[in-house]
């Protein structure tokens, strides 16, 4: 049975449609918009000649614009590069695969972050690992633009993936972005590989972080039959609530100004109090859920404002961000952010080698203003230094073009209240948020989800992901049973997808593949410091939630043998 995608009527009250997708041995692809089938011309063994022949192949539903052999370079092997379109020409894709025996029989679907809209090179790079791109490890890698091209303009830092204006009064493009684009591109990549290598079976894994992590979970929710497993990093599982949290935090630091120097005072206070709770004082808060720091201990003497303390207003700003958004009835709308001791990491984090410090997306990056002065926005309210923080950019794009039944390009984070008026995010919630909680079919069918998040992520609260895992466990047979197919790793100190005061180099893909294919359960993930980290040479095991890394009482804090994964309180 070919892969089919049915468009649906968009409604904030209707849960997302699970996409019908069946993997079979048939080398066919459904013509987009109809039910016709076309058998793809059979090619033999994945040689250079076979690769080039794809350029002239007649493939209904697919249009191949390039099929060429790329010579070995930059650590990547000789490989076949295929570019084309699918879904009535709306979705651009790129497939790179090693030739002949160099291919390991696996396809990596490489997600596109934020609002997508760009066709990234399909090398299989992912942000939680410094290892060579997955193409260099024998994988075929597929990327796609999800069905649209983002604009490059002043308003979005000239980054296409931050632009959502393509969705203005364009529901088809929004549905393609939500699920159809990636699903159709995945089917196209699978079909081409089966053609090229004459294989009836290949393994397919999704890898993505941030918006690409949310994209991956929508595939798990709506097109699970296309995939064997998923590496899901810092995902936008509930984009509507994420945007409400972003606006809440922007308004908190606008009403109660919190400067970067004072943010450093806050971070230092949290670190000093909560770092030792895992048994070692090592510059990392291993378990923020146990951090009980009282920010009022940093209070300035009444009527003063010194560099080493927090005023009442500065304490209020921090308290609002930690507590999370609440509506007019004082009801919680979304989880807040945990206390991590890394709140001040933004742009570049303290520590590491001068001039090459680890990039980080902390509170300054998301709430306190844009990273460069040339993006000043005079319309934004004081005291934000630019009004163009990344949080302001993504919220504005979402609430204008993606969140509501009615698009309005004039909406701004400081003029339209997404907490007081949930209709501003209701349509987006129906399209992009994960509604499904019962994933027990993953256990039955041998599929796996390996999810990770930075504890210090200032955009996607890790508390949101913990709540999601608990919800899945409740609907899928219990927490112990759910760990058979779904594990969540929370990375102490790590910011959004990477960076921060953290050990943020770990190989989640290899762990997933071994879990799916060899049933080697990932009880830990070995994490390492990067070459320009604040902790050079340090290694430590990451623990699956709810376990936490705990010092055994002796040994170097840089040695993984000095820590073990334990349940809190044990």
From TrEMBL:
Keywords: Calcium, Disulfide bond, Hydrolase, Metal-binding, Serine esterase, Signal
Signal peptide stretch: 1-20
Coiled-coil stretches noted in the UniProt entry, renumbered to this chain: none
Highest taxon above the source species: Bacteria
InterPro entries per record: AB_hydrolase_fold (IPR029058), Tannase/feruloyl_esterase (IPR011118)
GO MF terms held by the record: carboxylic ester hydrolase activity; metal ion binding
Record-linked Pfam families: Tannase (PF07519)
UniProt family annotation: Belongs to the tannase family.
Protein's recorded name: Tannase/feruloyl esterase family alpha/beta hydrolase
Organism of this sequence: Aquariibacter albus
Biological classification of the source: Bacteria, Pseudomonadati, Pseudomonadota, Betaproteobacteria, Burkholderiales
